[in-house]
Amino acid sequence: MNTNLPSPLRATSRVLVAVVLGIIVLNFTALAVMFSERMPSALASQSWSEGFLSHTAMWVVSLILILILSRGKPRAYGFCIGKGYRWWQIVAPALIIGALLATTQHLLPSSSVAVVADYSFIETVAFIWVYASVAEELLTRGLIQGFLSPLTDYGFSIFRIRISLPVVVSALFFGLMHLALLTTGMAVMPVLATVVCAGIVGFIAGYQRELTGSMIPAILVHAFANVGGTLMEMLIS
Fold first, then answer.
1. Of 41, 140, 183, 199, which has the highest C-beta tally within 10 A?
2. Does the pTM of the predicted model rise above 0.70?
3. Which residues contact 122 (CB under 8 A, 6 or more apart)?
4. How many other C-beta atoms lie within 10 A of the C-beta of residue 183?
5. Rounded to 10 degrees, what is the CA torsion of 139, 9, 195, 79?
6. Are 78 and 142 in contact (CB under 8 A)?
C-alpha cells in the first residue's frame, strides 16, 4: 500500500486547482484574441495573426505558471529529453486520428473552420503543425498534467495499459477546450467530433508524456495529428 498517496479530498482539490490554472491560461488567450481584433487593419487582416497571438499568450502564461509552481525547476513538468520512446505508438495513432477527424468533418454539414480555412500551406505548417502544438501541449501536458503528477497512483487500466488521473484530466481538458470552436461559427456536430478526437489525442499524448517523462512525445503526437488532418483534407477537398 502506498502511504504517500494523497487523500481523495486532497486529490480532488488538486484537480480543481489544475482546472482553474487551465482556465486562467485560456482567459489570457481570449484577451489576446480581443487584442488582435483591435490591431491595425494591415496586421489584423493576416490570416495567422489571431492564432499567433492567442497561442503566444497560451505558452507564455503556461510557462510562467510552470516556472512559479516548479520553483524554477520544471523537469517534473516535462522539460527534459525523457526516455522509453516508442515511435510507432507516437506517430501512427496520431496520423490516423487526425485523418479520421478530417474525414468526419468533411462528411458532416457546415464543417468548415473559419480560423484555419484561409491559411496557406506554409502558415499551416508553422502555426498549426508546430506553434499551436507546442503551445497547447505546454498548457495541457506541461502545466496541467505536470501539476497533477503527484496523483499518478490514481487511475485505471485498459488492456493492461495504465491510465493515470493526470492523463485523464489533461486529456479531458484538452478535448473540452475545443468547444471554443463554436465561437467561430462552426456547426455543433463538427465541433463535437473535434472534441472527441482531441480527447483521444490527449489520452495518447498524456500517456506518452507520463511514459517518457517528457513533453517531446506529447508535442509530436499533437503535431502528427494535425499533419494527418491536413493531409486528409488536401486529399478529399
1. 140
2. yes
3. none
4. 12
5. 20
6. yes
Q: Within 13 Å of residue 180, how many CA atoms lie on the same side as its CB?
A: 15
Angle of CA points 181, 187, 193, to nearest 5°: 70
What are the C-alpha distances in Å from 5 to residues 8, 10, 11, 154, 156?
9, 10, 9, 8, 15
Other CB atoms within 10 A of residue 200 CB: 19
In 3D, which of 72, 98, 75 has the Cα closest to residue 220?
98
Euclidean distance between the first and the last CA atom of the chain, given in angstroms as a whole number:
55
**Number of neighbouring beta carbons within 10 Å of residue 5:** 14
Which cell goes with 151?
496523483
* Digitized pLDDT (tens) for each residue of the chain, 237 residues in all: 455 677 888 999 999 999 999 999 999 999 988 887 676 654 455 556 778 899 999 999 999 999 999 999 999 999 999 998 989 989 999 999 999 999 998 888 754 444 455 788 898 999 999 999 999 999 999 999 999 999 999 999 988 889 999 999 999 999 999 999 888 778 888 899 999 999 999 999 999 999 999 999 999 999 999 999 999 988 987
At 159, the amino acid letter reads F
| Helix, strand, coil shares, percent, the chain, to 5 | 75, 5, 20
Residues 6+ apart with CB under 8 A from 141: 78, 170, 205, 206, 209, 215, 218, 219
d(CA 75, CA 87): 22
Domain boundaries, the chain: 8-236
Among 166, 172, 171, 168, residue whose Cα is nearest residue 153? 166
